[in-house]
Amino acid sequence: MNATCIRNYFIPFLLFLCPVISHASLMLDETRVIYPESTPQQSVKVSNPSGLDFLAQAWIENESGQEEGRFTVYPPLSKVTANNVTTLRIEKIDNTGLPADRETMMWLNLKEIPQRQVDDGAQLVVAFKTRIKIFYRPKGIDPELHESFTTMKWRAEPGKLIVTNPSPYHITFNKVWRDAANNSKNELPANMLAPFSSLTISVPAGSTVHTVYYNIINDFGGLSEIQHVSLQ
Predict the structure, then answer these.
(1) Is pLDDT above 60 for 1?
(2) Residue 11 per-residue DSSP state
(3) Numbers of helices and strands, H then E, in the chain
(4) By C-alpha distance, which of 145, 169, 125 is closest to 25?
(5) Which domain holds residue 52?
(6) Are the C-beta atoms of residues 226 and 214 closer than 8 Å to each other?
(7) Is position 16 within any domain?
(8) Triad 138, 214, 209: Cα angle to 5°
(9) Of 220, 26, 201, 45, which Cα lies nearest the Cα of 135?
(10) What is the separation of C-alpha 150 from the centre of its chain, rounded to a whole number of angstroms?
(11) How far is CA 159 from CA 123, 204, 208, in A?
């Protein structure tokens, strides 16, 4: 029997023998963190509704997924006991390179590590990771998103839509549709639009877009009302 065959038989057998937790157990109480410059720190609660103890490892990355040294989160490693809650605190420690005219986006990462149950025999331990966005807002801009997303400029070109964001905020789309809202056949791929930038959205070949419908995710993780823009 060759190595591939051994692996194909052995891995399912190992999974059968070893209990494994197949979903994340630690939960954050926010879907995003808004960090105004005027506040010394922001906090996020981590809850553990399960019956097991976990270690929680937390760290911050920049928008590109690299280590972010201008902000810190503490404690970086903590124990969250069963049916309990702990708090993570995010704090700015350095202003270097932070623009004063727009938001800076980062990632708060949380990895949960289950503690091995001594009496349960063989186990396969899986560490789940959750991450949410942090939006740092300098004093030079309005502290809230408000209706800035309605100032976006849309235009149609062959095979694509181009949307421009003249505001200092990151705009996260929930859905974008062409010509009819809440229609999955008309849904277009769009995610987040950075401040003072443009985003190109592909449309089906040969399609002519007359009206764009969209909504965004607001500061509280909720959805805005559906907006529409005529391109004619």
Answers:
(1) no
(2) H
(3) 1, 17
(4) 125
(5) 24-137
(6) yes
(7) no
(8) 125
(9) 220
(10) 22
(11) 51, 6, 8
- Helical segments of the chain, H only: 3-17
DSSP state of 217: B
Q: Cis omega before residue 143 (within 30°)?
A: no
Question: In angstroms, how far is the first alpha carbon of the chain from the final one?
Answer: 67
What is the C-alpha to C-alpha distance for residues 29 and 82, in angstroms, rounded to an integer? Answer: 17
Residue pointed to by tokens 């791929």: 189
Strand order in the sheet with 77-80: 32-36, 128-137, 104-114, 54-62, 77-80
Q: Are residues 178 and 206 in the same domain?
A: yes
Please give the average per-residue pLDDT across 5-11, as a whole number: 44
87-135: pLDDT as tens digits = 999 999 998 999 999 999 999 999 999 876 665 555 556 678 999 999 9
Q: In CATH, what number is assigned to the domain containing residue 54? A: 2.60.40.10
Cα distances (angstroms) measured from residue 173 to each of 186, 198, 225? 15, 13, 12
In the chain, what percentage of residues exceed pLDDT 70? 84
Note whether residue 117 is domain-resident.
yes
Structure tokens, 46? 């981590």
Task: Report the half-sphere exposure of 35 (CA within 13 A, side-chain side).
Answer: 25
**Pairing mode of beta strands 128-137, 32-36:** parallel
Tokens encoding 14: 């190992």
Pair 129, 219 in one domain: no
For residue 221 the two structure tokens come to: 């993780």
Token duo for residue 151: 């100032």
pLDDT per position as a tens digit, 204-225: 988 889 999 999 999 999 999 9
